[in-house]
Structure formats: C-alpha cells, structure tokens
Amino acid sequence: MPNQTRGEPAGINLTCGMSGSHEFIFTLVPIVYAFNFVIGIVGNSMVVAVIYCYMKLKTVANIFVLNLAMSDLTFVITLPMWATFAAMGYHWPFGGFLCKTAAGLVMFNLYTSIFFLTALSIDRYLAIVHPVRSRQFRTVVYAHITCVMIWLFAFLLSVPIALTRDVHYIENSKTIVCGTLHPNDKDVKRLNNLLLCISLMKSLLGFLIPFVIIITCYCLIGRALLRVKHIQKSSCSRDDEVLRMLAAAVLAFFLCWAPHQVFHFMQMLTQLILANNCTILEIIDTAMPFTICIAYFNSCVNPIVYSFVGRNFRKNLLRLLRCSPGGVARPHPSISSKMSAFSFRASEALSLTVKNSVSCDVK
C-alpha cells in the first residue's frame, strides 16, 4: 500500500487522471474555507462563552447547544489544513498522521453535529408536546449522559474513516494527496466493501435517519402549536417566533447537507457500477468541493439559528463583550425556557380539549 517515505512514496497512476482539478477550485475553495474558519471560530466561541458565563448549564437545551458549538469548534480548527490542501492544487504537505486526524475529525463533526441536532429536536418535542410526562427524563443528568454517548458513538463511527485515509503519491500530477487507501490486487474486494459500508453509514446515520427524526419532531411540534393557537383563538407572536425558529433550523440543516449527500450518493453508485466512467467521475469530483463547502458552512449557521436569533442572547453577548459579571444576571430564557414557557401554555391549552371547554382569555 503506497505511503510517503522520505519524500519518495510509491506512486499511483489514476485511470482517469486528476478528475476535478481546476484552477478556479484551487482559488475559490480556500477562500470559502477561510471564511468558514473565521465565522465558525468567532460564532461558536461566543456561544460557548455566553452559555458558560451567563446562561449556565441548568437546562437540557443549553447543554445540547453548548456541545454542538464545541463540536463545531473541533472541526473548524482543521479548515486551515484543508484550505492549504486545496490552494496547493490538492497537495498535502502535513504528513500521514494529520491526514488521518483531519479526515477523522471531519466525519466526527458530521456525526456529532447531526446527533446533537437530533437530540435537541427530540428534547424540544418532549418539552412542548409532553411537558409534564417528560419532566422526569429531561434532566441535566440525563442530558450529560446523552452527550457522552453521542461523543463516544460519533468517535467510533469516525475511526474507520481515519483508518482508511493516508497520503499517496500521484504520478499523473507529481503530487502527494490525502485520500482513501488505494487497493492492491489482493485486497480490492475487501477494501471496496469496507469503503461502501462507510459510505452507507455516512448517508444513513449521518443524514437520512436523523433528518427523518428531526422532520417528524418538528412536524409534531408545529401541529401542537397550531392546535394551541386554534384553541386560544388569539394571535400570539411567541407561537410564530417558535415556528420560525424551528423552520430555520430544519431549512439550514437540509440546505447545508443535502447537496453533499446527493453527490455522495452518486459517488457510491460510481463505486458500484460506474467505476470506469471518467465523465461522471469528473462531474462528481468537480462538484464535490463546493458541496463540501456548503456542508461545512453548517458549522457557521448553527450559532445563528440556535442562539443569535434570541434577543436575550444578544444582550448577554454585549454584556460579555463589556466584561460584565455574570453572577448577578437573571436566568436567561434562551431557546430552552422560551420554548418551555410556551410548552406549559400548550399543555394547559391542550388539556382544555379533554374537558371540551375552550378558554379565550389572554393574559
């Protein structure tokens, strides 16, 4: 198996050449990565600082949002390496260990981000639709246990990615790349099956199944909120604000990851039945860097969608920038209490349907 040894690694000749190698990619992609790096570092660092200093870890939602921000931070620190890789024409100067580490962290972030978004969606569903019955399960202790399980499970899922990545010398372009292992005559079938399993896990566990769960939770939440609004017979701006927040979260998740998952699925098909079709491989390899840029942008969007939309978060952010003490602050409603407060209104209103008596009183 070809690896770099003293600057003279064994070479690989690509059947279709260096597909997707275009000058505009080598210029545009590093710029986008740099933008994602700056926004991701600043945005997620502010989320961590504000939650830790002012909001504290007293609610389940705050714990999940904090862990989501920490997950994004662990990923964005690898963006300078990927930006350098693209700017140098897909030349990897950092060695085999960082190649494996950076590739593993990319997948680690994919799984942790989506799992935390899913956990947050389930928590919001329980808090709004079943606020009383779910109270015994929605505790800080259970939230911490869930976070530990997510970190461990995501780590296990990302290990195969790290093990199947290494540096290779491409004789066609005289460059060293960080890519998947190149099979030899003895292990072609075994390695291809392993890579196919990894791709299927990425599509199913990294997108499809969590997306179905998130959509289901938010549809049930939306139905409950609309039902309450209908029962109360009154316009409520809080209802609309919650619905907009949920819609923005789902939309951001889908728009950021769907393009990459579509081309990733096409890549799996080429691996199975169209391996020698250089035209299709060229299209996929050209589009893939841009879909990855969009997917990576999700790490920048998360702080905006889940935190910066709240007025109180912006107030606490200003307090943080002014170095105001956090000990005397009032409890911060943020995402959790803003939605939980409405959940008690929802449960109260929904209970009226059982009694068949609808109250139109508004405080």
UniProtKB/TrEMBL annotation:
<protein>
    <recommendedName>
        <fullName>Type-1 angiotensin II receptor</fullName>
    </recommendedName>
</protein>
<dbReference type="GO" id="GO:0016493">
    <property type="term" value="F:C-C chemokine receptor activity"/>
</dbReference>
<keyword id="KW-0675">Receptor</keyword>
<feature type="transmembrane region" description="Helical">
    <location>
        <begin position="287"/>
        <end position="309"/>
    </location>
</feature>
<dbReference type="GO" id="GO:0007204">
    <property type="term" value="P:positive regulation of cytosolic calcium ion concentration"/>
</dbReference>
<feature type="transmembrane region" description="Helical">
    <location>
        <begin position="141"/>
        <end position="163"/>
    </location>
</feature>
<dbReference type="GO" id="GO:0019957">
    <property type="term" value="F:C-C chemokine binding"/>
</dbReference>
<dbReference type="GO" id="GO:0019229">
    <property type="term" value="P:regulation of vasoconstriction"/>
</dbReference>
<dbReference type="InterPro" id="IPR000276">
    <property type="entry name" value="GPCR_Rhodpsn"/>
</dbReference>
<dbReference type="GO" id="GO:0001596">
    <property type="term" value="F:angiotensin type I receptor activity"/>
</dbReference>
<comment type="similarity">
    <text>Belongs to the G-protein coupled receptor 1 family.</text>
</comment>
<dbReference type="InterPro" id="IPR050119">
    <property type="entry name" value="CCR1-9-like"/>
</dbReference>
<feature type="transmembrane region" description="Helical">
    <location>
        <begin position="61"/>
        <end position="82"/>
    </location>
</feature>
<feature type="domain" description="G-protein coupled receptors family 1 profile">
    <location>
        <begin position="43"/>
        <end position="306"/>
    </location>
</feature>
<comment type="function">
    <text>Receptor for angiotensin II, a vasoconstricting peptide, which acts as a key regulator of blood pressure and sodium retention by the kidney. The activated receptor in turn couples to G-alpha proteins G(q) (GNAQ, GNA11, GNA14 or GNA15) and thus activates phospholipase C and increases the cytosolic Ca(2+) concentrations, which in turn triggers cellular responses such as stimulation of protein kinase C.</text>
</comment>
<keyword id="KW-0325">Glycoprotein</keyword>
<keyword id="KW-0472">Membrane</keyword>
<keyword id="KW-1003">Cell membrane</keyword>
<keyword id="KW-0297">G-protein coupled receptor</keyword>
<dbReference type="GO" id="GO:0019722">
    <property type="term" value="P:calcium-mediated signaling"/>
</dbReference>
<feature type="transmembrane region" description="Helical">
    <location>
        <begin position="102"/>
        <end position="120"/>
    </location>
</feature>
<dbReference type="GO" id="GO:0009897">
    <property type="term" value="C:external side of plasma membrane"/>
</dbReference>
<dbReference type="InterPro" id="IPR017452">
    <property type="entry name" value="GPCR_Rhodpsn_7TM"/>
</dbReference>
<dbReference type="GO" id="GO:0030593">
    <property type="term" value="P:neutrophil chemotaxis"/>
</dbReference>
<feature type="transmembrane region" description="Helical">
    <location>
        <begin position="242"/>
        <end position="260"/>
    </location>
</feature>
<dbReference type="Pfam" id="PF00001">
    <property type="entry name" value="7tm_1"/>
</dbReference>
<feature type="transmembrane region" description="Helical">
    <location>
        <begin position="193"/>
        <end position="221"/>
    </location>
</feature>
<keyword id="KW-0812">Transmembrane</keyword>
<comment type="function">
    <text>Receptor for angiotensin II, a vasoconstricting peptide, which acts as a key regulator of blood pressure and sodium retention by the kidney. The activated receptor in turn couples to G-alpha proteins G(q) and thus activates phospholipase C and increases the cytosolic Ca(2+) concentrations, which in turn triggers cellular responses such as stimulation of protein kinase C.</text>
</comment>
<keyword id="KW-0807">Transducer</keyword>
<keyword id="KW-1133">Transmembrane helix</keyword>
<dbReference type="GO" id="GO:0004945">
    <property type="term" value="F:angiotensin type II receptor activity"/>
</dbReference>
<dbReference type="GO" id="GO:0006955">
    <property type="term" value="P:immune response"/>
</dbReference>
<feature type="transmembrane region" description="Helical">
    <location>
        <begin position="31"/>
        <end position="54"/>
    </location>
</feature>
<keyword id="KW-1015">Disulfide bond</keyword>
<dbReference type="InterPro" id="IPR000190">
    <property type="entry name" value="ATII_AT1_rcpt"/>
</dbReference>
<dbReference type="InterPro" id="IPR000248">
    <property type="entry name" value="ATII_rcpt"/>
</dbReference>
